[in-house]
Amino acid sequence: MDGAVTGAAKLKLYDLAGADPARRFSPYCWRVRMALAHKGLDVETIPWIYTEKQAIAPSGQGAVPVLVNGDKWVFDSWTIAEYLEDTYPDRPSLFGGGAGRALSRFFAGWADGVLNPGLLRFVLLDVWKQLDPRDQEYFRQTREKRVGTTLEAFTAEREKYLQGFRDSLLPLRLALKTQPFLGGDKPLQADYIVFGGFQWARTVSNFEVLPADDRVAAWRSRLLDLFGGLARKNPSISG
Amino acid sequence: MDGAVTGAAKLKLYDLAGADPARRFSPYCWRVRMALAHKGLDVETIPWIYTEKQAIAPSGQGAVPVLVNGDKWVFDSWTIAEYLEDTYPDRPSLFGGGAGRALSRFFAGWADGVLNPGLLRFVLLDVWKQLDPRDQEYFRQTREKRVGTTLEAFTAEREKYLQGFRDSLLPLRLALKTQPFLGGDKPLQADYIVFGGFQWARTVSNFEVLPADDRVAAWRSRLLDLFGGLARKNPSISG
Predict the structure, then answer these.
(1) Could you tell me the pTM of the whole model?
(2) Could you give the number of structural domains in chain A?
(3) Which ipTM score applies to this complex?
(4) CA–CA distances in Å: residue B205 to residues B117, B122, B126, B130, B233
(5) Antiparallel, parallel or unpaired: β A11-16 and A43-48
(6) Is A120 found in the same domain as A187?
(7) Does residue B215 sit at the A interface (CB-CB below 8 Å)?
């Protein structure tokens, strides 16, 4: 259970899990976990593996995160964040208003288009290692088709890509030069959108993608500390 | 003169100009030109060339944009945008509130760290060609030192970099998938921050950096149309 309970109806979240059901590693599920905690909403997270499509069939599609609120099923991390913002408007805002909501789209675009593809090069095989055996063949087949080679070959020379990846974080590094969070003095959904990628990587892999003295590492650490260390407490290979 | 006058004190903006004093090409000055028009503020733009450091000495530094409001001198495009937002709070907001202001930093980080360096590869020599003869030697010396080669060599094989540049715009393309502006239904300073780079490129160069069917090109066109075509009316090599 995450966050503080204050009489809200109990929400359920289907949350991608590994062979260890406590290991939750999806960058998109983490966007929602952090959003729920930001709103102070209690949630029951249900460990889910890729091949359990049937369990989330009522959502009308086959990927998590899926949020269930009574008889309402909501999927897609962006849609869920908007749903939470609109359903619980009196709780701390995830976007800081209409302008903030629109501007947050670019953070999703950057995370989906730059950050997460960059991280994939480092952690794809490590993800596979953490999967439930029932998921491993499915994951290998779909991902090897997507990247055009074996998981092993895709990640074999990952050190070669490290400097380029770190360089690609420059926009983040510049934005954090004058403020502790992308949202300013306090974190917003934009922070959680980006943080999801880093949390994904550290949960399945001990390959450190950030230099210790990087401003981005300090920001990641602040995110790990939020909500009583919600993200830090998640079982993680990086320790 | 830009924008509508409604009894505001006349502002002055030192604005980078070429051999044709009407050709204004600085991406940072364009951030301010658009911000002033967004606020509906009248401004007298003063054409300025790199070697006229003395003219802006009262600002305490040597680069434009520099805004003058009575005896107040303000420099740096971000600082000027904040100054306008705080000085004219009753006019249309550039940030849409505190969250939007903080989130806009990332757009500046992306423009400064990814977009404008990417465009530089295409237009650096073209910038030089448009400069006032008094600026050309200064510009060549300082820029060749910065890029480590001649202006001609730096841009000679620019076609080779075009696909990589277009790929680097993916975050922008994704953000604009569901809304006409980065700010949502209406443009905000985040749009102007990014647009400045594209306006810089088209003002000095006929090298087209966007495919015609790119969603980003449609967005650029919307920006060019704003405020009675303010940016479109600026003399431009791209026509």
Answers:
(1) 0.95
(2) 2
(3) 0.95
(4) 15, 8, 6, 9, 15
(5) parallel
(6) yes
(7) no
